[in-house]
């Protein structure tokens, strides 16, 4: 079943999450129509290879053309219209940057896998629950409702100001008419009546001026309260969701909604500002004793300007945190002299600002880091914000060619520190710009989340551990001295984040049993980890008991093994993986002989092994575990083929495959058959096979088990033996002779 077919079978709450990340950048109808083709392409590799990305983009357009031809024959007008629009988007938006569409599709596929993994989990983790609380959703709706109400109030006040302007013009006309009369005419009864009418009109003007100022004051107060409370909370929540998404959590949405709120509030404040300017014009034409405009207008204008300054300052955000295109799942880890990308957005989207705001990027500006290492940014570090590069028309700028370069120390050489010191140093990338609009000049600054600078890719795992710990433990965006005294983390939240590492990086998260095993490995015993606190040193710096590596290095090696060698088997859920030797024996002891399970090695880095259950002649149960396969051996032979062809030589017996059923009772070929590199053929004679006179050969993994041993004697020898040669051996040699030859 395709991944998209699985997505469509999800519950509505998960389908709503899927709906959030499909937009005009990558329309859902294309995902639906081209599901099989899209899933068969390597978008992640294309995201780091421009030539490959261009080929995939061209092939994607060809696929769209084929669908367009098909629906044209069916005369499906709506689908024809949508496909033409999508084709135009693909050609226009991504032709100059094909890696962008590869990144988008790769992210969508990865997020689908994360949601599928979350849907299969029995319970939602504490972090994800907090991000999706009904209280947060209710506040979002309240903010949007209040912003809309404020906009309507500002527009209604516009009508009041217009009425006041018309009333004053009528007063001016009638007053000037009386002023132009001769002195004798002014004493007439008619004129006296007109003067009384003018006085009444002046009283009305005074009342309307006070009313308009009162309404303007209320609008300003409502904006102030909204900005100080709910809007600030919304922005902080979005930034927290971004932090969590960066370490593998749910993709964060809501920035477009925030942009809509910020833009409407800015428009309302500028509208109020124009209303106050209009009142100033009316003041120059008419004033009187007790006039409220000269008293109240300056205070209101000062408040409006203050709110505009704050609104603009809060609206300047890092939309996409710094990330090397070569490591899209490891944001905020930057390698010296390697390009990274980062995207900024101004949430106040006004046409007057298009291409008018130039943003400058710097590193470690006005901050002191924990070491003497200093960096500069090479490449294009000043760019203009515009509305043309984003599919949704947001006012943004993306830096794609920045490179960090380490400066030499005063001693003339680069600072050299231990590996943990380097990966625990936090740095900040800052951005500054200036907005000049309607007589206002506002300086804006923002910064990325803390980044870790590495000079060698071997430092990447520990650097990523630092990023995980920081963003899990704090929502402070700029605590660069965090690792001077890193706080402990709640074990339940850490385990949730570890599951995200698997769902985001290798497509399938961890279930509660697997997480329990990790908890035991971290704590050294069975624990109730709901409120247990784990130290940073225990996670990443202290070696596991009896081992020469830390917990994190062990886990990272497993992630790398899955990604490069056993990914399809992991995604299918056939690798139990995290289970202790004691637990595996409990699981297997009552199973049919030949039942086996797959688990990751606890003693070897990046190793996977299998254990099967057997029964002795006296009825006793015995267990056999093969020496772990590492990436070196798996590079020579696919793991599924190893499971298919694996042979064991027991004393005085012919080689046979002991692996029959994958735990609990799945026939081996049913579980792994689709992953075999080729289907096993009937054994043939030497003369029957081979090309150019050669007999085709295969590697067959063979182990030998002695009578007095429960473990394979030579667990993972790969003996080159063709199927035909093996058949001949069985025909002409005794089992003892075969055993001697193999040994």
UniProtKB/TrEMBL annotation:
Pfam families: SH2, STAT_alpha, STAT_bind, STAT_int, STAT_linker. GO terms for cellular component: cytoplasm; nucleoplasm. SMART domains: STAT_int (SM00964). GO terms for molecular function: DNA binding; DNA-binding transcription factor activity, RNA polymerase II-specific. Residues 570-672 form the SH2 domain. Its main location: cytoplasm. PROSITE patterns: SH2 (PS50001). GO terms for biological process: cell surface receptor signaling pathway via JAK-STAT; defense response to virus; negative regulation of developmental process; regulation of apoptotic process; type I interferon-mediated signaling pathway; type II interferon-mediated signaling pathway. Keywords: Acetylation, Activator, ADP-ribosylation, Coiled coil, Cytoplasm, DNA-binding, Isopeptide bond, Methylation, Nucleus, Phosphoprotein, SH2 domain, Transcription, Transcription regulation, Ubl conjugation. This is Signal transducer and activator of transcription. It comes from Loxia leucoptera. The gene is Stat4.
């Amino acid at each position: 079943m395709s991944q998209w077919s699985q997505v469509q079978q999800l519950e509505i709450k998960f389908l709503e999450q899927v709906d959030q990340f499909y937009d005009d950048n990558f329309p859902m109808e294309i995902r639906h129509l081209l599901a099989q083709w899209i899933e068969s392409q390597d978008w992640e590799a294309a995201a780091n290879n421009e030539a490959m990305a261009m080929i995939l983009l061209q092939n994607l357009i060809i696929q769209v053309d084929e669908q367009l031809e098909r629906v044209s024959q069916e005369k499906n007008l709506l689908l024809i219209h949508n496909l033409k629009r999508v084709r135009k988007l693909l050609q226009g938006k991504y032709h100059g940057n094909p890696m962008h569409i590869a990144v988008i599709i790769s992210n969508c596929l990865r997020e689908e896998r994360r949601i599928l993994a979350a849907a299969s989990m029995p319970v939602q983790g504490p972090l994800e629950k907090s991000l999706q609380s009904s209280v947060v959703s209710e506040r979002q709706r309240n903010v949007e409702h209040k912003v809309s109400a404020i906009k309507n109030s500002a527009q209604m006040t516009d009508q009041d100001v217009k009425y006041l302007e018309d009333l004053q013009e009528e007063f001016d006309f009638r007053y000037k008419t009386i002023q132009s009369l001769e002195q004798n005419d002014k004493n007439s009864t008619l004129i006296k009546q007109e003067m009384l009418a003018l006085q009444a009109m002046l009283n009305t003007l005074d009342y309307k001026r006070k009313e308009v100022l009162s309404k303007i004051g209320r609008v300003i107060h409502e904006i102030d309260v909204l900005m100080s409370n709910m809007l600030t909370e919304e922005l902080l929540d979005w930034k927290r969701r971004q932090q969590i998404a960066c370490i593998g959590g749910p993709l964060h949405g809501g920035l477009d909604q925030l942009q809509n709120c910020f833009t409407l509030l800015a428009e309302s404040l500028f509208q109020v500002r124009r209303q106050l300017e209009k009142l100033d014009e009316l003041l120059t034409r008419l004033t009187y004793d007790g006039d409220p405009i000269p008293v109240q207008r300056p205070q209101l204008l000062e408040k409006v300007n203050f709110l505009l300054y704050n609104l603009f300052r809060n609206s300047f955000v890092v939309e996409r945190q710094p990330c090397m295109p070569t490591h899209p799942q490891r944001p905020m880890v930057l390698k010296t002299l390697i390009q990274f990308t980062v995207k900024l957005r101004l949430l106040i989207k006004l046409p007057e600002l298009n291409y008018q705001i130039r943003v400058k990027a710097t590193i470690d500006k006005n901050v002191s880091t924990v070491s003497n290492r200093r960096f500069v940014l090479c490449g294009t570090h000043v760019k203009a914000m515009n509305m043309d590069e984003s599919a949704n028309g947001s006012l943004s700028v993306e830096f794609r060619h920045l490179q960090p370069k380490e400066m030499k120390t005063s001693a003339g050489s680069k600072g050299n520190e231990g590996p943990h010191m380097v990966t625990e140093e936090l740095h900040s990338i800052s951005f500054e710009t200036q907005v000049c609009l309607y007589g206002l000049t506002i300086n804006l600054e923002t910064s990325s989340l803390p980044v870790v600078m590495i000079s060698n890719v071997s430092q990447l795992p520990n650097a990523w551990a630092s990023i995980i710990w920081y963003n899990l433990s704090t929502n402070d965006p700029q605590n660069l001295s965090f690792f001077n005294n890193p706080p402990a983390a709640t074990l339940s939240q850490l385990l949730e984040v570890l599951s995200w590492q698997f769902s985001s990086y290798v497509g399938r998260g961890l279930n509660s049993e697997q997480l329990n095993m990790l908890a035991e490995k971290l704590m050294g015993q069975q624990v109730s980890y709901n409120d247990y606190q784990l130290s940073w040193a225990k996670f990443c710096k202290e070696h596991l008991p009896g081992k020469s590596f830390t917990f994190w290095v062990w886990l990272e090696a497993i992630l790398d093994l899955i990604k490069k060698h056993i990914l399809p088997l992991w995604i299918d859920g056939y690798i139990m993986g995290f289970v202790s030797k004691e637990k595996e024996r409990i699981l297997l002891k009552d199973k049919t002989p030949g039942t086996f399970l797959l688990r990751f090695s606890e003693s070897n880095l990046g190793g996977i092994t299998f254990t099967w259950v057997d029964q002795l002649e006296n009825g006793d149960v015995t267990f056999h575990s093969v020496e772990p396969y590492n990436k070196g051996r798996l590079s020579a032979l696919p793991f599924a083929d190893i499971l298919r062809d694996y042979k064991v030589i027991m004393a005085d017996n012919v080689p046979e495959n002991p692996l029959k059923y994958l735990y609990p009772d799945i026939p081996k070929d049913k579980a792994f058959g689709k992953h075999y590199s080729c289907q096993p053929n009937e054994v043939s004679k030497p003369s029957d096979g081979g090309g150019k006179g050669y007999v085709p050969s295969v590697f067959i993994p063979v182990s030998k088990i002695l009578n007095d041993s429960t473990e394979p004697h030579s667990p993972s020898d790969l003996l080159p033996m063709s199927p035909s040669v093996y058949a001949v051996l069985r025909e002409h040699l005794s089992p003892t002779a075969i055993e001697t030859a193999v040994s």
